[in-house]
Amino acid sequence: MDNYNVTTMTQFILIGLSDLPEVRYPLFVVFAIIYQVTLVGNGAILLAIGTEKKLHTPMYYFLVNLSLLDIFCPSATVPKMLENLLTEQQSISFLGCAFQLYFLVALAGTEVFLLAVMAYDQYVAICLPLRYMLIMTKVRCIQLTAGTWAAGFLNSLLHTVSTFRLSFCKSNRVNQYYCDIPPVMALSCSSTYVAEMLVLVVGGILGISAFLITFVSYIYIISTILKIQTVEGKHKAFSTCASHLLVVCLFYGTTIFTYIRPSSSQHSPARDRLISMLYGVITPMLNPMIYSLKNVEVKEALRRLLCHRACLQQL
Questions:
Q1: Is the pTM of this model over 0.85?
Q2: Which residue intervals define the domain G-protein coupled receptors family 1 profile in the entry (predicted)?
Q3: H-type helices in 128-203, by residue range?
């Protein structure tokens, strides 16, 4: 049996996206631009919905929350990554790592639940249009939104506490550009069985439940759209949910590709870290683009917002 010298871990070393110094600054520029585009894109969605009264509906209320998540989620990891790329210092404190993991898991979990709520909203709008205003009341929307945020943060608290109660006495090098449960847990020299079971059981139940709500909702939505007789009616119904459906496919597609794809010895750790960018950075940048391009009402609101700003600048 191996004997470990158990010491108090005070900091972790985040292995960056690349150990090659010649690409450090190009990576900094690329991801700084991506982060800025993410902030501007989602900020524009928030402004457009906030200033357009006809968009003050349940669907766009949930979209506001999605845009907030798409701002907060990369903000939990990207600034530290940019700092590491610029200063070549890869360290993060034990407490900083715990907070980063907590907020990352909380925000990602909240987005999973929110996408399920948004799918249910689309189901009611398309399959039960006459009862929509009775079901999706203002109070109901607030309750659903509060529930998604509470579930995400409570779930993350459970996993964060179980992860950082472990003893860390091996290497302090986290094989990722941010603190996540699997790479942090891999550094433990104590049993990780309980923490792993919590991830599999609690995370699995909540994640699968949210996925099933989303999946079943869209089964009913597609079935209802196919029953519409006119082409114009089908197009109108599909345009209502097309943006959200693309966002759902993008979110679950990148999540599966990042975490559930089969492992292979041909996959280098550096390539795995780059692939994780799909989930943590690229998706939040693409979501506002999808809504601004596919959703006519959001597109018109953004156009009026830009025209208003242009008129103010000319005065």
A1: yes
A2: 41-291
A3: 132-135, 138-164, 181-185, 193-198
Q: What is the pLDDT of residues 17-30, one digit of tens each?
A: 656 677 788 889 99
Task: Give the pair of three-digit tokens for residue 252.
Answer: 């679950």
Tell me, letter by letter, the H, E, C secondary structure of 2-63: CCCCCCCCCEEEECCCCCCHHHHHHHHHHHHHHHHHHHHHHHHHHHHHHHCHHHCCHHHHHH
Supply φ then ψ for residue 98, to 5 degrees. -65, -45
Structure tokens at 42: 């989602």
CA 189, chain centre distance (Å): 30
Task: Find all residues with CB under 8 Å of 191, minimum gap 6, and list them.
Answer: none
| Residues of the chain scoring pLDDT < 70 | 1-8, 16-20, 258-275, 308-310, 312-315
CA distance 74 to 61: 21
Helix (H, G, I), strand (E, B) or coil at 93: strand
Nearest CA to 102 out of 39, 164, 148 is that of 164
